[in-house]
Amino acid sequence: MSTTAPTVSIEEKNKELVADFMKVFSAGDVDKILSFLSPTATWWVAGTIDGISGSKNKQEFGEMLSSLSSTSKNGAIALTPLAWTAEGERVAVETESYAELENGRTYNNLYHFVFVIKNGEIESIKEFLDTEHTRAVFLG
């Protein structure tokens, strides 16, 4: 009888890393969130929302997170993964967010994230979302 542990695929490892990242993101600890990213990581957000859209390096992303977390009542935007696709170093995940904001509005958006994982760290994220909802809730 073999006692060899089953082999975990790179896709499963990468999905687990992204799931852990989303749990930490949902708690709002910016330093812990950034610890998942490689030193050269980039975060890109769709649209034309000032201060949110476009490409950011790790430091700029951390600054944006700090700013956004100050707008929510509990200091975080909760992310709930809904559906996963993983192939090699890429993990795509449909996600729903939820946060009650200090401005009295509720942020409840849908996303499609594409993560690229290299050497056990997040190298890049592309975030596709309902930009009009984001604009109306945060800036409206």
TrEMBL record:
Residues 18-123 form the SnoaL-like domain. SUPFAM superfamilies: NTF2-like. Pfam families: SnoaL_2. Gene3D superfamilies: 3.10.450.50. It comes from the Bacteria. This is SnoaL-like domain-containing protein. The lineage of its organism: Bacteria, Bacillati, Actinomycetota, Actinomycetes, Mycobacteriales.
